[in-house]
Amino acid sequence: MTPFSVLIVEDQARFRDAFTHALGSVPDIELLGIAPDLPQGRRMFDQLQPDVLLVDLDLPGGSGIELIRHAAQTRPQCEVMVISVFGDEQHVVASIEAGATGYLLKDSLALDLPGQLRSLRAGGSPISPVIARRLLVRLAPGAPGAQGGQGPSPEAMAAALTDEEVVALSEQESRVLHLAAKGFTFDEIAQFMQVSPHTVMTYVKRVYRKLHVRSKVEAIYEARRLGWLRD
Questions:
Q1: Could you give the domains of the chain?
Q2: pTM, two decimal places
Q3: Residue pair 68/97 in contact by the 8 Å Cβ criterion
Q4: Chain segment 1-49, per-residue pLDDT in tens
């Protein structure tokens, strides 16, 4: 594949470091720079004219969707990959409508980032499996029953709950959920709370059970839907 350039717009230092590490020694990908907020990201985008834009949505100074829209209008040949903790339909659809052609959740960072960007550059649309499944279920004919005989999805189960039917989270469970929503790993949360990783995972499993979900991304989505977390 022909070498290509990438600009990253991400406000959290640990993710910037992870992206730099993942792309730093890749011969066919040139990392042009990293911006920590929306205004600087826009300036660098206009100055550097990257082939690929890797952008978070929740940025200091505004939403990454504004930069996606700007990229689509001023440099349509640039491919845009969203990398975010937001996996809900509103954020995904808004990003795609603005011009994004790929969407990865930060839970997916164990995946091969250079490979995902190469796929994007080659005309593919990398997307995290949980988002792809949600969109496919939504678009399928007779969507509520389109589960291949496997019963309702976790999303459908959670959507069917009323606020009164959801058991309230404990203080520890709520704190874990809030830290996870900010992008921290479970090991980092254990350090912050001064408990063992096993204890944190116990809280996590309780949260999943109470919200009828199977992943951190789904838990964050449902907590926001119920008003327990604010964007």
A1: 4-134 (3.40.50.2300), 149-225 (1.10.10.10)
A2: 0.62
A3: no
A4: 689 999 999 999 988 998 999 998 899 999 999 999 999 999 999 999 9
